[in-house]
Amino acid sequence: MKQSILRILYFSLICFFAIAGFISFKSSPKLNVTIPSFFPSPTIIPTVTTQPYTINKVIRVIDGDTIEIENKQVVRYIGINTPETKHPNKSVECFGKEASFFNKQLVEGKLVRMEKDVSEVDRYKRLLRYIWVIESENATQSGIFVNDYLVRQGYAVASTFPPDVAYSNQFVDAEKEARNNNRGLWSKCNE
């Protein structure tokens, strides 16, 4: 008799926890990542990070991989390189104007989340950062990972400078994808 009551009790507890778990799973909030319609590629990879970051507004795009933010600081994207348009000792390189224009469409006038790697600045005193376009000041982990997106669309190449290597493998993979799909500079410029 005691075993029978214990079995019923155990079975009841198991059913209770199973139903409670199912209800909490059904009522948990869903992640909703929205990609603006003017970005044609389905290859944007949401990147989740635990690194400290800042939110800033981009006031000017200098070229394909360099921007100026609201406090007049110049920011250089980490891990990528776009063809030159403003270098004092080089002429405008193939696909440089396109990369600069694309970057302008992507970030100018928008809020961006900026994440530091190891280095604070480069030799020209530009901040070195990974950049995400976000939709509001409250956004934390969503947005378009600009460094990756420029490489993946063929507007930039992967360019690793240790010790800033947090996303270097991701950028190398993005470059392979762009090259394999003949995107951007890979379809227009001779190597």
Automatic annotation (TrEMBL):
Top-level taxon: Bacteria
UniProt-listed SMART domains: SNc (SM00318)
Keyword flag Hydrolase: yes
UniProt entry keywords in alphabetical sequence: Endonuclease, Hydrolase, Membrane, Nuclease, Transmembrane, Transmembrane helix
TNase-like domain sequence ranges: 52-188
GO molecular function: endonuclease activity; hydrolase activity
Name used for this protein in its record: TNase-like domain-containing protein
Organism encoding this protein: Candidatus Roizmanbacteria bacterium CG_4_10_14_0_8_um_filter_33_9
